TrEMBL record:
Membrane protein topology class: Multi-pass membrane protein
The protein's name in its UniProt record: long-chain-fatty-acid--CoA ligase
NCBIfam families linked: PRK08279.1
Residues of the AMP-dependent synthetase/ligase domain: 58-379
UniProt keyword Membrane present: yes
Transmembrane parts of this sequence: none
């Protein structure tokens, strides 16, 4: 009787696969998520609290001599990093008398000392503010004041940036230490000798006895494309959650991960480095991303997992083709912001790599992971996901930059396939901790009376849509989408089309105001491929073939290079402000001439004709 039964089982499995092609992947993902939830609950309830630091110490006792970090030709074992962190903690204690809960600002480059300094502070129960090493002067002072740090730790290569603001730091009573043997500046105290002389004996867990799941572990700054960075509060609970991302993407203890993203961000530090630390994985750490060294490094260190932000994989696709570019062991790529065209090209060129595109934000209380390799999607909705992260996609007015509400004052859910604002319910399971020292910005992220009177949601500020198969697609950020002729234009979609023109390397799309017209008209700053001139007719052909009339960029600005934030997001604010007046812009400008069906050079004469409305837009 077992034969017909097994036959029946096979038929059921076959039908399941045909009818629900993602059924098994959904089940596997949900199982992993459940395991994470059970572990999180166990840690929450454990007395004393079992933190990431305890997890690291367990990894150290299991394999003290396993390599934790490879950096510029030198390997540091789990045991070495542990001892080094004890030394840093003791040296700082001797100098500053740090108490549990005192925050310390780390203004350090991407190097191993970043990791063990953070660990040392975590062993003392002190939250660390991770400062972006690209920021200077006012922004830097702003970041320090948000988190209330009275101690700043830096390294020789960033000394100049600290010297610029030193008088203000002195005034505010902030002590500055530098990780070097000596320093000629009187108010910057060298710490390296003191660290090397300190004892490496373990520190008493009593020093961090008040740490729990809701305590602040780190402050991570979100690089606002406008205004000052905001300090997102990352609690120990959130640290646990984010560090499990590797596990949910299928990474195991045998893997070797390549971290080339900045450590002052959630992706490089929490997901990549702390995530690896928890599972006893070896990290290949880089000072910065390098497209030319990427695959050589992967081969040299037998890398199996890489991290990316969308632009980095595009840089890899722009490198000259090589014979051996498929010769590597990389099996998983984890990251976010990957465009569909780059995704396809990346797979075609570099082999069958499982791309795990993630939708998340530093401070957000929701995450999507595309665990199916479906190109272009940032994730999938399923029953468990809706239970863990209750969320909704709601109608949004792009002009007014606010949700559309019905006669009862509640928000309206969008239909399948429609673009909506993603909002995520704030619950005990998915809390939102807000921004340090900025009640106003925290309040701005809250949305009340969404589906019921009195409910509270986190506003992601992102526009997404989901299809019949429950795949979720990122469309644009609120503020990046603009309205023209009563239609919404998604800048990311227009940029994708522009880069299809053979002369265009990169495109940054935005909307600009035109006197006497409602909304904003499309404009793009582009860079050209090496040795190419701007091809007016080919560019026109691409935009007219693939975009509706209202979405076609009417103005094109040729730039030598585009400006990016520290996380490779394109800067738009300044370009929007500068508009399209050829008298004020030195870059070459072009105008889409609908009569001539091509782009033409934008002269002062054409500009005047647009202003006086002789030319109809």
């Amino acid at each position: 009787s077992s034969c017909p039964l097994s036959g029946l089982a096979l038929i059921v499995l076959f039908l399941l696969r045909e009818r629900f092609p993602y059924f098994f992947q959904d089940c596997a993902y949900m199982l992993q998520r459940l395991r994470v939830m059970i572990r999180m609950n166990k840690y929450k309830k454990s007395k004393p609290f079992y933190s990431i630091v305890d997890h690291f110490l367990d990894a150290v006792s299991r394999h003290p001599s396993k390599v934790f970090i490879h950096f510029e030709g030198r390997a540091y074992s789990y045991g070495e990093v542990d001892k080094q962190s004890n030394k840093v903690a003791r040296a700082l204690q001797a100098e500053v008398r740090l108490q549990e809960g005192d925050s310390v600002a780390l203004f350090l480059a991407n190097e191993p000392s970043f990791v063990w300094t953070w660990l040392g502070l975590a062993k003392l129960g002190c939250p660390a503010a991770l400062l972006n090493f690209n920021i200077r002067s006012k922004s830097l002072l702003h970041c320090l004041s948000c988190c209330g740090a009275k101690v700043l730790l830096t390294c020789p290569e960033l000394q100049d940036a600290v010297e610029e603001i030193l008088p203000t730091l002195k005034e505010q009573g902030i002590r500055v230490f530098i990780l070097s043997d000596s320093c000629s500046v009187p108010d910057i105290v060298p710490l390296s000798v003191k660290i090397s002389q300190a004892s490496n004996e373990p520190l008493s867990p009593a020093l961090r006895s008040n740490v729990n799941i809701r305590t602040t572990a780190v402050y991570i700054y979100t690089s606002g494309t406008t205004g000052f960075p905001k300090a997102a509060i990352i609690t120990h609970g959130r640290l646990w959650g984010a560090s499990f991302s590797l596990f949910t993407c299928g990474v195991s203890a045998e893997d070797i991960i390549y971290v080339n993203l900045p450590l002052y961000h959630l992706a490089g530090f929490v997901v990549g480095t702390i995530g690896a630390m928890g599972r006893g994985i070896t990290v290949i750490l880089k000072r910065r991303f390098s497209a030319s060294q990427f695959w050589d490094d992967c081969r040299k260190y037998n890398v199996t997992v890489v991290q990316y932000i969308g632009e980095t994989l595009r840089f890899l696709c722009n490198t000259p083709k090589k014979d051996n570019e498929n010769n590597h062991k990389v099996r998983i790529a984890i990251g976010n912001g990957l465009r569909s065209d780059v995704w396809s090209e990346f797979l075609n060129r570099f082999g069958d790599i499982k791309v795990r595109e993630v939708y998340a934000a530093t401070e957000a209380n929701i995450v999507f992971i595309n665990y199916t390799s479906k190109i272009g999607a940032v994730g999938r909705r399923n029953i468990l996901h809706q239970f863990m992260f209750p969320h909704a996609f709601i109608k949004f007015d792009v002009e007014k930059e606010e949700p559309v509400r019905n006669s009862d004052g509640l928000c309206i859910k969008v239909a399948t396939g429609e673009t909506g604002l993603l909002v995520s319910k704030i619950t005990q399971r998915s809390p939102f901790s807000g921004y340090a020292g900025n009640k106003q910005q925290t309040e701005k992220k809250l949305l009340r009376d969404v589906l019921k009177k009195g409910d509270l949601y986190f506003n992601t500020g992102d526009l997404l849509r989901f299809d019949e198969e429950n795949f979720v697609y990122f469309q644009d950020r609120v503020g990046d989408t603009f309205r023209w002729k009563g239609e919404n234009v998604a800048t990311s979609e227009v940029a994708d089309i522009l880069t299809m023109a053979h002369c265009v390397l990169e495109a940054n799309v935005y909307g600009v105001k035109v006197e006497g017209h409602e909304g904003r008209i499309g404009m793009a700053a582009i860079t050209l491929k090496e040795g190419e001139d701007f091809d007016c007719s080919d560019t026109y052909k691409q935009v007219s073939n693939h975009l509706p009339a209202y979405a076609r960029p009417r103005f094109i600005r040729i730039q030598p290079c585009l400006e990016f934030t520290g996380t490779f997001k394109m800067k738009k604010a300044k370009l929007v402000e500068e508009g399209f007046n050829p008298a004020h812009i030195e870059d070459q400008l072009y105008f889409l001439d609908t009569d001539k069906r091509t782009y033409v050079a934008l002269t002062e004469e054409i500009y005047r004709a647009i202003s006086s409305r002789e030319i109809k837009l």
